[in-house]
């Protein structure tokens, strides 16, 4: 904000500093502060009072009401006209949606012809560049970037205009304020309560991420045409997570620190703000939704009058105020009558009053208590009481009177109670005797219930509030393990007592899923306990299955069930159980597909479905996961393409959403893996490069370690592709970039298994390329990576994927040793690799990838034995490799990796036959038999090579065993020898 023309910049800076502090104070504290700040400076006092008055006239929120033009230092209408038509990124500003004293929100239309899309673009007014305003704006952008919830407006992107004005793009919500939506659609009380519970879910989600909204009101709660409420405008939200803001106190400053009509008493008084402040604001919103009245129905709702009422006056009961009439006033053009209010709720005034009497009176008034310790302690408590009321269960707000609990029980079981009363009359005499025993039993029940709720609260506190607060802090893995151990203890004690309470089932399932992720989720930062992770996910899945069978479940519970099934599938795959993993993930897909048909524009459903397809691809594939998979190339591409198609639909709805971009880039990588395996190397390079650029964008936008890891993965895949093309130098460049990223990530958190694993792989890749370029270097890096993986496998023996990685490292080390002609050492490494693969897969004849892993190790052993002159042992190894591949070779279209191993094995046996012929110079018949057998074997090798694309033929197993061209030369040699024998015989 620039100074008025009549004021110097120095004077303006002084006014801004005093004004910012004054606006943060309660109304009763301001006069004394202004007196102290201004002293004898009358003109300064006049300026401050003028700006304070302007702030009051500016309205409740600068996004929902225009500023009064005669009260602000600048008029921004011309500025808005100039901005219409301006292009920011890929979007053109089309029209103004909302404006205020500090900024405006524009409708943006995509203009790059990629696809049609509209967004909301929020900008600071030109000249409003005070540190206070900019900090508030950036604070809101940071908060939105950390929130991903179906009932919270999503952030897509942000930046600055060419003039240096900050802006951000977010989801365009076209809907009505929640109170207007409910009235226009004449929603019943129950329907309003259920809609309000979705709002509570969004606020609770923000609270779990340590964010207090501080400005909850109907204009910030828009309901879409599909009936989905969206929480907007975190402009004055308070971040209480120190990791998200350099200065927490500064984040609370704003030119409009609260909306008086919905502010809590502590906000009005300038006291510290907690999550209970949002509970109060939600209570005001619910009061209006249920009654059509504001809790403080004043003739003129000036900010001062409302603030005094919030702190001093007690709201009327809901059941009482709906019988009152509020006449029209200056700020309300129409009167509020009992008939109009009840008609909007599809009942009569008498029935509406009766419906609100009791629980709802108690629940809403408890949320509006002036004292924090008498108000609901959390949004979850508030929402739980509403859910219990809808389920005809006792609510916390009503206290624990025996009569009340009995009445609730009777209400739930009227038919049974009516019949039972006949029996009760006959037992009346015995009741007197049992009164004392009943009281004792009730006291024990109450104590048990209190303990149960205490444990429930403690487990949630550990798994959500504390865990989430430290999750992204560098080096936090060890601390998370301590929290995990404690939380699991409490969760297990709760799981045996949960019954069928939907709220508790949800809590327990979510907590077990969070525990599993920390224990050993194979794609995220974890503690390396894969078996423990699988067990926790299975406990969560059982709870989710129980939940969807209860009457209180909803579509979100079915979505969570799909998530849980997919997570179990992921961990089953990580432990090597690919068959059961495929069953689990296809259950997840079936659930998600049904939800997509029912909710085609819900991005959370598209997110889950794309992830389900991705995991299905991992399970059907295998090569990209170190052999842990079914090795079904005919299906793996289909799954990854379905994932990408789903993500494209997701991006069509939310083109700049970070999670959508991340998922899209990830599945581009996996599809490129399959393309490379099928011989389309250039196509794979294109997709890897595209994925790398997207991953870099997402990483820069989020700053997350996990998103930076995506960049390292893309470099790793590019390195592997250049290695396929035998471009060792280019492969080394990509591998070194991957290594540097992992080096940084492991420095951030040395206890993070997934980052240490990535570092070891990148180190091995760099070592392999260096050794190929110069045999004297690179070996130490390969050996160091092997040592690192050995330590990880030793502490997490249930992780089949990590054992597969170690086996591949043994093979890489064996290849390097063989190239340096250190044959005994190479043989040892190949044998270690084979031992792991045999332990992992045993006799699994259905798993093509597993069969090839075993066979390739045997073929490598055969190649070394052949070079060592151990012909009989070498022949046995090659024959065992071919025997292992027999089921895979019998399929109509064997996988390229299977053909590669078979081609090398046939060529190896053919070469051995040529050697045996050389050993029998005195026996022409024996020589001819060996040459004929060699020719047959080389023909089989040639046929296999012809089915493999040239780009995938790779290196020979040994100097004597070359790919297709070398095999053709061997065939020519055999033909020459056999023809020479025939000529000699004719002579």
Describe this structure in words.
The chain is mostly helical. Among the domains are: 1-57; 175-231 and 258-412, Transferase(Phosphotransferase), domain 1, CATH 1.10.510.10; 414-449, no CATH class; 810-986, Tetratricopeptide repeat domain (Serine Threonine Protein Phosphatase 5, Tetratricopeptide repeat, Alpha Horseshoe). The protein contains 39 helices and eleven strands. The strands form three sheets. The chain has a six-stranded antiparallel β-sheet with strand order 1-2-3-4-6-5, with helices on one face. A hairpin with a 7-residue loop joins strand 3 and strand 4. Helix 22 (530-548) packs antiparallel against helix 23 (555-574), helix 31 packs antiparallel against helix 32 (779-795) and helix 37 (896-918) packs antiparallel against helix 38. The longest helix is centred in the middle third of the chain and has 43 residues, at 428-470. The chain is elongated, with a radius of gyration of 35 Å. It starts with 8 loop residues before the first helix and ends with a helix. Residues 57-76, 241-257, 400-410, 415-438, 623-627 and 956-962 have low confidence and may be disordered.
